[in-house]
Amino acid sequence: MAKWGEGDPRWIVEERPDATNVNNWHWTEKNATPWSKERLPQLFADFKIEQRDIECVVDSVDKCNGEATVNNRKGKLIFFYEWELVLKWSGRLLKNSNLSHKGKLTIPNLSEENNLEDVEITVTIDESNDESETLKQFMYNVGRERIRNQLGVYIKELKEEYSKNLILPKKDANSSDSAAEANDANNAKNAAQKAASLRSAAAAPKSSSNSSATRSVGCKLDVRTLSMTEEFHCNANDLYNALTKPEMVTAFTRAPAKVDAVRGGEFVLYGGNVLGKFEELVPEKKIQQSWRLKNWSSGHYSNVVIELEETSSSTMMTLKQTGIPASEYDAMKTNWYRYYWHSIKQTFGFGSSISDAL
Question: How far apart are CA 343 and CA 82, in angstroms?
């Protein structure tokens, strides 16, 4: 397993140092955001939409906010992208070739969760008159479909460009899938155990900072405490269920999950890389866990306390995690947000208030 703070800080297995991802077992990831931010403006640069006596053109991409990543898990490619785009356009009626009208196209929800035909495109015009309204109607009836076609080109190119080298030839391809997976699971386990042994043997006591505490786990381990608060637009019961119901945890982690939400019950997430036990459960109020990453020193667990407070319009979640290895502290907050809070909001729609959805 990859060590947090080295390379891509993930709660998932990184490719081996020798670049071999045996049987595509490990979850590997490519960041497609920089490429996308360059490619999307290129696709719309001077993009013309014409028909008989009407000529319109996309002048520029005024806004391009979002992210895109491509993951491979067990030979399966998973694409994640979420973009908010604003395009500036202008148009003219050819009978009045000297008179141009300007407007905007707003695309708030280009995402893998939406079919291309369901992507919302709003057409606006800067100044309203008979000619500009004619152009606006043309962009609504004809232009939106052309824009969707260009978005389809982006999605197609994203999948082609970022599929390269993510799916590698499987070892012993003629053998059954179950035998290959069992063999790779054993190899991954042995490699993780060997790496953990090497880390433990090489570990030396570290001096604690002002925000650190020292705990004895076989040897002195420099640990830290993380506190964070996040707002969810749902009731406390829905958020509590998202964190404790196996089917809901499986949904937002996008991978099989073992969750036995009773006192002393175990949980195993992200292919066994996040695991622990439930220490205390108060429905709609509190979840306390002994929580660790698979690559932490043997026997070392952090303590996670999640408290929920429902308000009139949302639920406030407060997390306190003690006992985080100092070397992995910097990545912890980012990963809690990305792989728990953001994913929960995206999966169940808890990021938008009820009034926003109406």
Answer: 12
Asked whether the beta carbons of 90 and 59 are under 8 A apart, the reply is yes
Residue pLDDT, tens place only, 229-258: 999 999 999 999 999 999 999 999 998 899
**Strands (E) located in the chain:** 28-31, 47-51, 54-73, 76-93, 101-111, 122-125, 212-217, 219-232, 258-259, 266-269, 274-282, 286-293, 302-310, 315-325
What is the distance between the alpha carbons of residues 324 and 251, in angstroms, rounded to a whole number?
26
User: H or E segment at 242?
Assistant: helix 236-244
| Element counts in the chain: helices (H) and strands (E) | 9, 14
CA distance 111 to 98: 38
Stated pTM of the model: 0.45
Cα separation, 69 vs 71, whole angstroms: 7
Say how far apart CA 288 and CA 308 lie, in whole Å.
12
147-151 LR contacts (CB < 8 Å, sep 24+): 147/44, 147/58, 147/87, 147/105, 147/107, 147/121, 148/116, 148/117, 148/119, 148/121, 150/43, 150/44, 150/47, 151/107, 151/110, 151/116, 151/119
Residue 195 · residue 295 · CB < 8 Å: yes
Mean per-residue pLDDT over the chain, rounded: 80
Q: Does pLDDT of 31 surpass 70?
A: yes
Residue 121 · residue 163 · CB < 8 Å:
no
What are the φ/ψ torsions at residue 276 (nearest 5 degrees)?
165, -160
**Cα→Cα distances 27→11, 33, 271, Å:** 10, 18, 9
Residue 81 and residue 111 in contact, taking contact as beta carbons nearer than 8 Å: yes
What whole-number distance in Å separates Cα of residue 126 and Cα of residue 355?
28
Give per-residue pLDDT as tens, 174-199: 444 555 555 555 555 555 555 555 44
Provide the 10 A C-beta neighbour count for residue 221: 22
Answer whether 72's CB lies under 8 Å from 168's CB: no
Q: Please, are residues 315 and 236 in contact by the beta-carbon 8 Å criterion? A: yes
Residue in the structure block whose two tokens are 């030839």 = 169
SS3 358: coil
